[in-house]
Amino acid sequence: MLQSIWDDVRRExxxxxxxxxxxxxxxxxxxxxxxxxxxxKGFPGWSGEGTNLYTDxxxxxxxxYLWKHMLFKPWTAITYMFVHExxxxxxxxxxxxxxxxxxxxxxxxxxxxxPLYLMGGLAGFVAFFLAFSLFNIETxxxxxxxxxxGAVLCILTATGIFAPDYGINLLFLGTIRLxxxxxxxxxxxxxxxxxxxxxxxxxxxxxxxxxxxxxxFYLRRGSDLTEPFQNGLAWIRNxxxxxxxxxxxxxxxxxxxxxxxxxxVKETAAKARPSFMRKAGGTGASESxxxxxxxRSGMTHQEELDAILDKIKDKGYNSLTKEEKDFLFRASxxx
Length: 335
What we know:
Layout: H1 2-15, H2 18-41, H3 53-58, E1 63-64, H4 67-72, H5 76-79, H6 87-108, H7 113-134, E2 144-145, H8 149-162, E3 167-170, E4 174-177, H9 178-192, H10 199-219, H11 227-244, E5 259-260, E6 263-264, H12 265-268, H13 287-292, H14 301-315, H15 322-333
Antiparallel strand pairs: 1-2, 3-4, 5-6
C-alpha cells in the first residue's frame, strides 16, 4: 500500500500541475514537522525547561519578526510559507489553494502559479515583519510565523479580480460568485486586526491580499510582476538539469550483443547464400525472409533486436507485442 501511495505521489509531482505540487510539498512538510514533534517529545531532556530541541529545529524553517533571527536565517522568509503545525490550518489553506489556484492556473497560466505563491508569501512576511518592527504590537504567541495563508490569499484575491463572476459550489450554500468570497475573506482580515491572538498572522494575510491586488492591477496594464520570478525559477531549473546531465566527455554506451549457445546474435544471423545456391534472378536471401525481417522505422535488424532485448530486461517478456515476439522467434531460429 505504501509503495502504491508513493508511486501516486511521485507521478503527480512529476506530471501534475503546479497547484498539486505545492500542495504535496506542504503536506509532506506537515508530516515531517509533526513526526519530529512526536519524536522530540518522546525523549526526556530534549523538550524540558530550558532545552527544547523541537523549537530550535522548527526555528530553522519559520520566519520571525526578530532582526537577529532573519539576519542569520534569511531563507526562512520563503520556507515559512510551506510549514504548518495544525491539521485544520493545513486543511483550510490547501482547500483554498486547490479550489482557487486551479481557476487561477486555467485563466492565467500554470507558469504564474508558483511565482505568485512565492510573491504573496514574501509580501505577507514583509507586512508581518514591518508591523512588529514599526509599531508597538503585543502578541500572546511566539515571535515565529508559519503557514501558507498569505500566499493562498494572494492567489485567491488575484483570481477574484480576474474572474469575479465565476461560480463556486459550496456545501449547504450552493453556487456563490467568486467576488463575494474574496470580499468576505478581505473583510475577515480587516476585523481580525482587532484581535491579538493572531495579530501577526493577520498582517501576513493582508500583505498577501495587497500583493494579489498589485499583481492584477499591473497585469491588466501589460506588466507581469511574476516575470522576474519566472526567469529566476527557469534559471534554477536549467542549472539543475545541466548538473544532472551526463558530461560531454562521457562515452555513450555502444550496442549490446545478445548471445546464444556461446555465439553472439550477429554471428548466428542469416548470411547470404553462395551464388551456386541462388535461384536464377535471386539475390541471396529469400523475399519472404526479407519481408518478415525488414526493420521498422528505419532500424536495422540488429538495432531492432537490441531494442526488443532491452524491453524484455526492463518490463519482461509479456510486455512484447505479437509482432515483437514473432521477430524474436525468427531471429532465434536463424542459423
